Amino acid sequence: MASSKPFLKWAGGKTKLVPFIQFNLPAEPRKRLIEPFAGSAALSLSLEFDAYLLNDTNPDLIGLYRILKQEKQHFIDFSRQFFTPENNQESRFYALREQFNQSVDLAERSALFIYLNRHAFNGLCRYNSKGWFNVPFGRYKSPYFPEVEMQGFIQKSDRIDILCGDFQTALALATDDDLVYCDPPYVPLSETASFTAYTKGGFNMEDQSRLAQAARDTAEQSQGVLISNHDTVFTREIYKDARLALIDVQRNIAAKGSSRQKVGELLSVYGE
Prior knowledge:
By secondary structure, this protein is an alpha/beta fold. The chain is built from 10 helices and 7 strands. Strands 3-2-1-4-5-7-6 form a 7-stranded mixed beta sheet, with helices on both faces. It is globular. The model has no long low-confidence stretch (mean pLDDT 91).
C-alpha cells in the first residue's frame, strides 16, 4: 500500500523527517509500530507495518481517530460542512471555537477539531488551564479540507489500534514483535521557548526522564525504541545510554517567519 500523509497540521510533525527516521530503524521484520505520542501519526501513515498502535494523552485527537476509523467516509462528509467561505471569517471562527469548547458530542467535536486545525494560527493545538482550546484565528486565504489524507488514514485503519493514556500505557503493551517510536513534547531550547499546553497538565522534565528510563526498559522486550527530541545538554544526558543520531531541522512554529531557524534534533535509538 502506498504511504499517505497526515490529515492534521501538527507542531513538530515528522513528515519531512520520515526518511531520516526510517534510515535509523532496526532491521527486524516490521510487524507492529507503536507510537505512544501519536500526534499526527506521520510515521505510521508513511511506513508500512503489519499493524499499528496509536496512543496519545489528547482525548480530542484520539476521539477523532476513533470516529474516523469507525464512521469512515460518512464522518468525512459530515466534517466538510464546516469548511465554507463564511466560516473562514474571524467572528465565525471564534463562534465555532466556542462551540467546540462546549460540545460533548463526539462527531461534532471531532469535526470541529479538524476545522480548528486548519483555520487556527499555524495549526497549533493548545488549551488553557480550564482545558479550553485557545489558539487564535489564523487568517488563511483558503483553508484546505484534507479529504484525500483522511481517506489514506481510513485505508490503514483496520490495522490501527487506538489508545488514550500516558505513554507508559502503550509501552507496557510492547512485545518482541513491536518497534516503538516516541515523539514527546520537546525539551525547550530556552526557558521562554516552551510551546505551552498541548494537553492540560503538560510534559515536564521529570516526564522526560521517566520516558528515557521507560525506553531503556522497553527496548529489552521489543525490537527497539526510538525517541526524537531537541539536541540539548539535558537530552544528551538522559539519552546517554542510546545511540544518538543528529539532524538539523527547520522549525516553523515561531511567531514570525523571520525568526524561524534550523535547530539540532536528536534521534535516540535504544535496543541495538
